[in-house]
Amino acid sequence: MDFFSEAPLTTLLMCELRDGVFHPAVPRHDRRKHPGQDTHVLVAAEPSDPAVARLARLAGVTRVRCVSAAHYRDHGAENLAMLIAQMAVDYRHIVFPATPFGKALAPRLAAMLDVAPVSDVCEILGPDQFIRPMYAGDVLVTLRNRQPVCVMTVRPSAFKPAEALQAPAQIDEAPSGPDMGVSRLLARRLAVGGRPALSVARCVVAGGRGLGSKDNFERLIFPLADRLGAAIGATRAAVDAGFAPHDWQIGQTGQIVAPELYVAVGLSGAAQHLAGMRSAGLIVAIDRDVDAPIVKMADYSLVGDLNVLGARPSGSACIARALGHVDGGLCAASRLRKTPVAPQTLLPARRLACFWHQPPRLRDLVMRAESAGLNDERADG
After folding, report:
1. pLDDT, tens digit, for every residue of 136-148?
2. 318: Cβ–Cβ under 8 A, 6 or more apart, which residues?
3. Which residues, in sequence order, are CB contacts of 334 under 8 Å at separation 6+?
4. HSE-up of 97 (CA within 13 Å, CB side)?
5. pLDDT value of position 143
């Protein structure tokens, strides 16, 4: 008998819940084209927790299983891996988000079950076929997994968030296992800010070492991100130089993002960084190097000296307003086929946006935004 073809198609998703709030990646589960017929969610919380009730209403969830023992509340990988291993006999697929939480759990569980984990899945083709990147995203591999249990991590940014709700799914309490006593949480420090989470943000503004200093990073990146309601990212070089905290690093050794709009400011686009943002929908590059990899990769390119463009207070305002018009037309822009165009050099520094390479309709929008920005500048004297 072929075990893979006869076993029931049931998927177990591990939910990360901290202080009554689940991770932003969790609502993206229901649109993942789950290979299983039934989707169960495991969460370390009381069944009466309001967050559990919200989880049960996500479309596609058929059962929520809670473990309320105190030694699971800190999300220790050792305790949770042992618990899930004991439950694995009932499931064909066990799915984790490709976050630090999921990346700590999946390898431990796979070793306990004696299977090879499938990591960083960015597309699900069927119950046993998946697509994942290799070689820093330069190659996408389609693989088939015929193991009795498939342990996998998926990139939350590669899937759209759940929007539909349903009647509440069944909520019950799963039997808890013993405390392994292998590790103990001493403290946890959570960074709290008013910006969207970088890994699931719809819009990201990223800065690189080309900004020159931490002061320039804050002066040019922060206002632009504020106007767009965007998350802020940085290259590894910018993080190493102290321009931004490590939490903002995008790349192979940082966070993987796939926003609808990605604005790259003052960064060249090293392979390590491109691996972390290659899946972005619309890429805008602002840099003075016409041959930079990020400029060649971008859908729209603005070539010029950032210190000149951002010297006036109205500089970033005009760029942001132009981007705002483009962002407002993202639905239309996302349907347009990307056509590589050789970038041109920005000639007059005052004309901040008119040398972007874009379809005529979007170019007209940007030109109108630029005109409005320059008029505001004249009004300010």
Report:
1. 777 889 999 999 9
2. 352, 353, 369, 370, 372, 373, 374, 376, 377
3. 260, 281, 282
4. 26
5. 92
Say what the pLDDT of residue 314 is.
Answer: 45
CB atoms < 10 A from the CB of 129, how many?
13
Helices first, then strands: H and E counts in the chain: 12, 17
The model carries a pTM of 0.71
- pLDDT digits 0-9 by tens, 273-330: 998 898 888 888 888 888 889 988 888 877 777 766 555 444 455 455 445 444 443 3
- How far, CA to CA in Å, does 127 sit from each of 130, 159, 219? 8, 17, 49
Residue 144: C-alpha distances to residues 88, 98, 118, 140 (Å): 20, 19, 10, 13
Give start and end residues of each alpha helix (H) in the chain.
3-6, 50-56, 77-87, 100-113, 214-228, 236-240, 271-277, 293-297, 306-309, 313-328, 330-334, 360-379
